[in-house]
Amino acid sequence: MPFQHLRLLKGALAVAIGASATIPSAQGADLRGARPAPPVYVAPAQPMSFVSEVRIGGSVQDPGSAEGKARGFSTANVNGEILFAKPIISADPFWQAFVPRPTVGGSYNTGGRTSFAYIGATWSVDLFPETFGRRVFLDGFFGGAAHNGYTGPKANTPYGFNTLGCNPLFREAAALGFRITERWSIMATIEHMSNAGLCANNRGLTNYGGRIGYTF
Fold first, then answer.
1. pTM of the complete model
2. With contact defined as beta carbons under 8 Å apart, do 75 and 68 qualify?
3. CATH number of 51-215
C-alpha cells in the first residue's frame, strides 16, 4: 500500500507541474492575439499664438445690383481676415465644433463703391473627414459690419450705390474650403450684409469671391 501511495503522489505532482508550465504560454498566446485599444481623442493644445489663421483674397461686388453694374462692369473688392484662437478647448469633438473663432476683417472696393469692416465669429466643420482626410471644410460667419455706403432715402441714391438703409449692418458669410497642406488652404466665399428690415430701405450687398488662408 505505501508503494501504491507513492506512485499516486508522483503522478499528481507531474500533472501539477505540467499544468503550471502551460499557463504562461496560454497567457502569452492571449496577449499576442489581443487587439490594441483604439486611440483616445485628445483635445488640441491651445496654440502658442492667439492668432489662429490669416486670410486674404478678393470678391465681386453684388453682381446685378447698382454697385455691381457701375460703369457697365462689376466692381472688385480686396479683402482680408484674421481669425483668433478658440477661447475654449473641449475634449469632446462634437462640442468643440460649436466653439467659434473670434474674427475681424475688412473689404476695400477698388471702384469707389461700398467698403466695410466687420467683427464676429466663425464656425468651422470638416466635411466627411474619413472620406476626404480632413481636407474639405465648411465655414460659417455671423457678426456686424460698419460701412461707408449710402444710407439715405432711396429717391436720392447716388449712381453706382445700393440703398443700404442703416449703418452698421448684419453680416453673414460662408466658405467652402480645401486644405492644400497643414498650413495653407483655399476657399470659395459668399457674404451678405443687410439690416434685416430694421430700416426703411434694405437693398443689402451680396458678394462672391475666393481666398487663400495660412494657419498658424
1. 0.76
2. yes
3. 2.40.160.20
